[in-house]
Amino acid sequence: MPLIAVAALVYAAALLAGLGGVLVPGVGLSAAAALWGAWAGRAAPAALAVLALAGVVSGASAARRTAVCGERLALARELTLLLEDDARPGVVVPARVRSGRCAARALVAVVEGRGAGGDVVVARGLFVPGARGGFVRHARLGARTGGVPLVALRTAARRAIDRAFGADAPLARALLIADTRTLPPELRDRFADAGLVHMLSISGLHVAIVAGAIQLVCLAARAPRRAAAVAAVAATAVYVAVIGAPAPAVRSGAMLAMAAAAQLAQRPTSPWAPVAVGAIVPMALDPATVRDLGFQLSVVGVAGLVASGALARRLLAPRWSGWRLTVGRELLASVVAAVVSLPLVAWSFGRVSLVAPVANLAAGPLVAVLQPTLFLALLLAPLPPLARFVAGAAHPLLAAFDLAARLAAAVPFAALHVAPTLAAAWLCGALSAALVLACVARHPGRPLVAGAAAVAALAWLPSLPTGSGTAELHMIDVGQGDALAVRTPRGRWLLFDAGGGWRTGDAGRATVVPYIRRRGGDVAAFVLSHPHLDHVGGAASVLRALRPAAYWDAAFAGGGDAYRASLALADTLGVPWRRVHPGDTLAADGVVVRFLAPDSVWTAALRDPNEASTVALVRFGAVRFLLVGDAERGEEGWLLRHAARELRADVLKVGHHGSRTSSSPAFLAAVRPRLALVSAGLGNSYGHPDAGVLAALAAAGADVVRSDVVGSAVVRTDGHAITLELNGLEWPLAPASVPASGASPPAPPRR
Ligand SMILES: [Zn+2]
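That is the input. Now the predicted structure with zinc ion docked in place:
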């Protein structure tokens, strides 16, 4: 491996350390290494150590800049927002926030005004700085003051895709503009099992395919080689810009441009040089890129491809030729790429796909035809009938792509469901780096020893204690349904509901189990709010995989099949079943759960399970979370009559996915939440959450966080202060009773 690739790796690790606040040890270590290299007369290690020093300092100063700007933005009376998606009251949209010379990424909770993606607007609102960005509370958008054409273009592309592709739009959005928000969870689930999930997020691969197709078309039209290469690079630049320049696409674009330049100058380079340049360019432009999963996956994937090429030249080329060599090379490439990206995939998707090499072999050629077709449909967007025609032609290809995933996922033992902890994922990362080195090194002995050391450390890891020292409430994004998880200071879990189920799977297996396993720790209790499928659908998977110490449930007569199956399974597994009564408590590591409802006298006369929802008040120190399942106004009335004094809570899991059947004014007045969590599926057919409920929550002074808009959310508390984490952005929750008028001066920032 040439020095430049090692340099990219060292720089990335140093940036991560600097961003993570490991400044003093990082600087000390790399300075010592640089001095030693200079003293011993070793130029290469000395240069790498200097690079590491630069990385640590650059990461730390980026983190410091973010912190200082966060405080300035928090004090600003008016903010300039560049909206990155269409904004309307009740949604949380990503945006870039500016005030004076400071800028930050943020999520904006809009309570008034509208704007289109790409618009620049002046807004009133409270910027709350966080560790990696911020949040704008109660944003009232003013008139449009300008626009950024590229962001507007991306939003327009999103709308054009929706118009042209109809039912295929979610998949087309993912493949074309890296927007995976509308993908149904079951589709994501089968692509993950099949080992094809990386094809759903925009990667260098898609960009390379589009560039290759353009080059082919130019060559077929008898254009000179040079002109074809230039045209491909230019078209790629436009494509990367239109899709919003995500890190993997920028990396791929930089690589292609460099390869084309080398070809034009007739200067062959090592294949590692473009990989390294493609990795370094986005990191140099924005140090925070190094934390982006798409960026990490695509760099690791390409590094795997280059390593497999070296291995194929050494192992296969001397023995095989013709079609056997081609197939062998492809299979080897997909195996090595799958193995080296395994820690990242296991970390983010909770599984290791065993059918991945074969599935990739089948899906690869399909994507090679599909991607240019989709791109053509997007190009033709200004001519809707033509765009629809091409989109129609892409339909069978999209169906075949999905079928490949379906078939591969249906193979027995297609995927192992795993969930590494952060430390385990780091060790696996070291293992895969060692494997890449072993593939390309002339003497693979040393890397293999390092790999063996990582395996040994992995075997020893489970004996370490886990735990965060704070209590957390996780709203796990399971689409339409509920799955709330409370994590105790010692890392144990209390799980409330398990998400929905569908014919071929369920949210428990697809989402909840990997989510919990990845973070480690036992499940001390599983609590079911009520036996509707969007809450109990994943229960059997949760019971089987996580073996909770107890199963709490209100025992409403007349639940469906999934409910009965979960009870039977709990019995088989020996998980004790407990019936919830008002006043029962459940305690774990300082977290106390008190059940407020349902009362058996109340439920006896009911026909609707929603109104018999288990209502739980979760307390840690002075902080209170209220989880109400799908309780509607009837049960809220019962609570107001029987437990009014206990309802006040800092965080409310809003009843019935934000439906207007719940959250009556009297109930909200009794709870007075500072934060309202709404768990609902994007574009669900029930119209959840209701606009009136959202307005009532905002008027009551609560920040509204919707899983359909922002995905999973984590509320963290030490028993006094509360922080909220969304999409990797974390910030403190403002103190109670912020006036809804937004007229008062903002609160001073808090660290
Ligand atoms: Zn429900």
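The chain has five domains: 3-72, 76-147, 155-419, 423-463, 471-732.
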